[in-house]
Amino acid sequence: MGYGKLKLSYVAPLFFLVFLITALPCRASSEVSVIPKTIKVGLVQDAQTQDFSVRGRYRLVNRLTGGAVSDVLPGERWQAKYSGTGLQLYKNGQLAVNAGSTLGLQQVSQMVAVLGGRGNLKNIAASDNLQVLGAGGKVFGLRMDSGNIKVLSGSGTYGLQGNKDLNLVALSVAGRPQNYRGDMEFRLQPGGITIINELPLEEYIYGVLPREMPASWLPEAQKAQAVSSRSYAVAHLGTYRNQGFDLLATQMSQVYGGYDAEHPNATRAVNETGGQLVLCEGKPISAFFHSSSGGYIEDARDVWAESLDYIKAKSDPYDKNENHYNWSVSYSKEQLVSQLTGRKGYYNRAGEPEKIFTRVDDIEILEKTSTGARVKKVRITGLDAEKKPLRLEISNADAVRIVFGLKSSLFTMKKESAPDGKLNSVIFTGSGFGHGLGMSQYGALGMARKGYNYQEILKYYYSNSEIGPLSGR
Predict the structure, then answer these.
(1) Which one, of 223, 212, 231, lies nearest residue 285 by Cα?
(2) Which of 75, 208, 348, 428 shows a CA-CA span of 20 to 30 A to 31?
């Protein structure tokens, strides 16, 4: 999770591979002064078609003018289609909307039937800003979703009740519906349709927490994860602003599964920590987390080449598990060549991926992180596509992990040589899973088992931090 913005560079003549992260030190980690009411999550990009349906009552709205386009009701089959120049929406197989602009699919919390002077009925939604004329000709605006509006009938006074049913949008993914709370936006992009889910921040965390941590884990560990995920989301608001949303629904931000991913245990953890963030100097931090530390938390500068005041190296005695310790990965020399290809992150001077090695002769560990646990820098030597000698240095621990396709960069290496002295195979043996920065999830579980609460867990893994709401909230 939370890889930030990553950049790989291919530099002559020593061919360094460098990972950079855009997160800044504590004092400038975020400009957010209040927790936002809603967050925008990019679900789908460059879609040519997208089937959807609703549970509850929704309305299609032109996002440029705010005008209503069409009601969307349960039982209707809708499809958004990219025409190349515009957006077309089909209802039950028939073209219903031909729009040249972005459309919003918004919840309608309440409908009221108003009887006109000629006996005509008109449906008015909560968002239509109904007004009434009071005594002395004074105009009052009514909030139809407040539940406090009273009407007088021949048999007494009654309060209008809003829609208490759960509204959901179902997007068809691989032929199966996936349900989401909140509103949707169908945004036109040059390559297709971007689909954005806008919903309250806390409801977004409902759909994140069970995907990032098992819902069966102890409550204090889940609370720590809820606060960490909330902090990460707030600190990274607007990361994808130029595409119309804040975060992706994938590991490039946090894994978000929508309503279908929710679990009562996780929802309880979110509610019991509502509004709580990990703060450094009063600002929400980029609360990076990973599955298993292997026994050591690293300094950010060793892993992503950027110093962060709240992510510092330390031992992690709480991270104990059978899933991510003492793993091994072996490669023959042919498999190494296959692993070290453009699709794994190597780029030529034009920024295009290319295969660098046609033969790997040796791998050397040049430097380790400040804990002495993870490999920070390696050198690979061999032959390039023209059979000329090639040397590649891979710098920063996470680059090492990703390039070799390993669970973590906390490993030892055993090499076997061919009769000619060249590398024949290599075996990596290590522990941990992930980049090793910030909170270890298995470590959080270990601390919870020892009786620590979520605030103590978070303060251990995030140095120089405090837990609480934003002061401007």
Answers:
(1) 231
(2) 208
Cα angle vertex 311, ends 306, 316, to 5°?
130
Side chain identity, residue 451? G
Mean pLDDT of the chain: 83
270 versus 134: the higher-pLDDT residue is: 270
As beta bridge partners, residue 385 has none
Confidence of residue 437 (pLDDT cuts 50, 70, 90): very high
Contacts of 314 (CB under 8 A, 6+ apart): 296, 297, 371, 463
Cβ neighbors of 83 (< 8 A, separation 6 or more) are none
Burial of residue 430 (CB within 10 Å: 0-12, 13-18, 19+) is buried
Helix, strand, coil in percent for the chain, rounding step 5: 20, 35, 45
Which residues make beta-bridge pairs with 240? Answer: 245
Task: Please state the length of the chain.
Answer: 473
3-state secondary structure of 30: coil
The encoded tokens of residue 169 equal 């949008």
pLDDT (tens digit, 9 = 90+) per residue, 87-106? 999 999 999 988 877 899 99
Q: Quote the CA–CA distance of 93 and 81 in Å, as a whole number.
A: 12
Residues 225, 86: Cα–Cα separation, whole Å? 41
Residue 192's region, left for phi above 0, alpha for psi from -120 to 50, else beta, is left
Residue 174's pLDDT is 78
> What kind and span of H or E run contains 193?
strand 192-200
Q: Assign 3-class secondary structure to 376-428.
A: EEEEEEEECCCCCEEEEEEECHHHHHHHCCCCCCCEEEEEEECCCCCEEEEEE
8 Å CB contact between 213 and 290: no
Distance of alpha carbon 28 from alpha carbon 278, whole angstroms: 14
Query: Which DSSP letter does residue 84 get?
Result: S
Partners of 40 in beta bridges: 198
Whole-angstrom CA distances from 292 to 253, 277, 320, 407, 441 are 18, 22, 8, 9, 6
Tell me how far apart the alpha carbons of residues 253 and 287 are, in angstroms, rounded to a whole number: 11
Q: Whole-angstrom Cα distance, residue 147 to residue 128?
A: 16
421 pLDDT more than 70: yes
- The single residue listed with the structure tokens 């959080």 is 444
Q: How many other CB atoms are found less than 10 A from the CB of residue 57? A: 20
Question: Cα–Cα distance between 156 and 168 in angstroms, integer?
Answer: 35
Radius of gyration of the chain from Cα atoms?
27
